[in-house]
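Input/output pair, single chain:
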Amino acid sequence: MKISAIIITHNEARNIGRCMVSLAGIADEVIVLDGHSTDGTQSICRAHGACVIDQDWLGYAATKNLGNDMATHPYILSLDADEVIGSELRTSLLDVKDKLDGAAYQFNRLAFYCGEPIRHCGWYPDVKLRLFPKGYAQWEGAYVHEELQPDAALSIQHLEGDLLHYTYYTVAEHRARAHKYATLAAAKLRGRPKMSLLLKAAVSPTWRFGQMYLLRMGFLDGWRGWRICTITAREVWWKYWWALRS
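Output:
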């Protein structure tokens, strides 16, 4: 059974080569939908044999679904540009490739933050469904944090090994991304009752921090855990406050 890998990119030169290398021997074709990158991302992808489509931005879910439609093989493996197939997961994928029978496959994702893996804060195991038969799953989410929704009747199996996610190289990058996501989330919340937004702005950030740092033991990740939890709590506050003011 052949596999099409689908990736969306925009100025991912520092990440995409590593992602492409990890796909060797697993994907029978790689389709990259690139949002007019200016840093050499497209050249790197083509050098690794990928089919690159220069694509206007449609949103995360819509762009990924367009890529799925372009796949020519029966199975789709969906990756982000900053993700890498780990060695144990690679073995699992190669083993299952010879016996794909219509099921979908999920696996754990391990995030790296400022160079180190994060195993707490609610960030791990972060199970992701990423290998599925074409036409049996759709990405959903109009603004941000898109999710793959499989058909209800689709059997889902879990593979051993981790998908490695190289998230933020610096704390400043995390703050900038949180700001962007909060802006997108606030747009989705516009029009909701003001009192509800005000209550959530007052309560949700503190609850989110306590949940991640204490209940999910973010403190075990040291200063990185503290930064992750505080920036995430701030992102929660931003989205409700900006929605309230809009």
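The helical segments are 13-23, 41-47, 60-70, 87-97, 171-189, 194-215, 222-245. The chain has a mean pLDDT of 96.
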